[in-house]
Specification:
About 95% of the residues lie in helices and about 0% in strands. By secondary structure, it is mainly alpha-helical.
Amino acid sequence: MKFVQFAKSLVRDEEGQDLLEYALLVALIALVAIAAVGLAGQSVNSIFSAVASALSAAS
């Protein structure tokens, strides 16, 4: 019940709305950053795998 009362107070309070907007913005930025790191990680992994197989083939 305390959480519901807290949420209702945020809806009525303009400062709470600003805080909620910032929290949503931070969450969105975090999701985009996680997705970007995941995609970049896969690309880097494939590059290093190609380099490793080229080096093993050369030796």
